[in-house]
Amino acid sequence: MIEQYGWSDALRLSFEPHAHAGYLPGRIILQQRETNLVVTGAGNLSARLSGRLRHEAREAGHPAAGDWVALSANADEGTAIIHAVLPRRTAFVRRAADSVQTLQVIAANIDVVFVVTSMNAEFSPRRLERFLAAAWQSGARPVVVLTKADLCEQPEAEAAKIATLAAGCPVLVVSVLKGLGLGGLLDHLSPGETCVLIGSSGVGKSTLVNALLGEERMATQEIRAADARGRHTTSHRQLVLLPGGGLILDTPGIREVGLIDADEGLSTVFDDIEHLAQNCRFGDCGHSSEPGCAIRKALDEGFLDAGRWAHFQKLSMELAALALAKDQMSQEVERRRLAALQRSYRSSKKDLRDLRS
Ligand SMILES: Nc1nc2c(ncn2[C@@H]2O[C@H](COP(=O)(O)OP(=O)(O)OP(=O)(O)O)[C@@H](O)[C@H]2O)c(=O)[nH]1
Ligand SMILES: [Zn+2]
User: Nearest-5° angle of CA 51, CA 59, CA 131?
Assistant: First the structure.
């Protein structure tokens, strides 16, 4: 059962200490507030966090959909307690909606990210860059999916242009309406691997998931043709098996990840800019009015698109702010750990004194 969900030898190895402790392995397929739906060898269980994990979660964040966990099960009741979370291979992280400080893992152990964007009027290079950076940052392999090819006069030529923005990742052209290119998507996913779809509202993610599942599993909604903007369709979403043996995680949180928290994602998407900057005369060039600035030169001569440059700067600033927040968060965790150590030290000293007196 859990083999289908990606359980592997590597996982079995890292689970060994938990197996010795008598725990069962499972994978979270749906995470909603206090409850986690976990697939296990004993069926699907509704699991809560142990007291210790709940306490830790206040700082380290809650386990996420896609996480592998160690549980003690009450199979008769269909419930379980989660005692530990296995190390993640990859993770999608974002700032919690209610705070600048808190980072939240919204999906874990993802192998492939399909960055979905449509070929009609709503296509935006800036948005593609942002989603690609988020995809790279997660640690998974990005694959660009261009939807609604039927609305595009020359989809292949358009795709070739878009591929220049996508820094070496595969670019697939699909039309669910015409039944084109769906097999190509599944070719990028091996059995037991997990994918997610990210992209703006209305680009056709639900339609694509339905087509992949071969049924009307997700609710889709008519798009407003006039302005080519989609409306939000919310439905119950979780980690599900695809016919080819792959898995898809489709949760509202993952769909619009736009925030990134590491430089790797950015430098992969903007490697042209990184290369250019290496040619600036000064190593610490601010690319504003320094003499011999290669970026300025490229902008003036039209080799570097001004919009792309502005977007790179904006994302760099967001990254810096996020890195700062992350730093403060880990300092806070460290401070509390120290305080707890000091408290236990003081109380053991007191115990000693009490013992002596
Ligand atoms: N012409 C055409 N329209 C499509 C295609 N795929 C999806 N659509 C339409 O695009 C609209 C939006 O599709 P959805 O699948 O709901 O988009 P979504 O990305 O899931 O949107 P959210 O749920 O808001 O994130 C619907 O009206 C679909 O019928 C396609 O291949 N061709
Ligand atoms: Zn410069």
Answer: 125
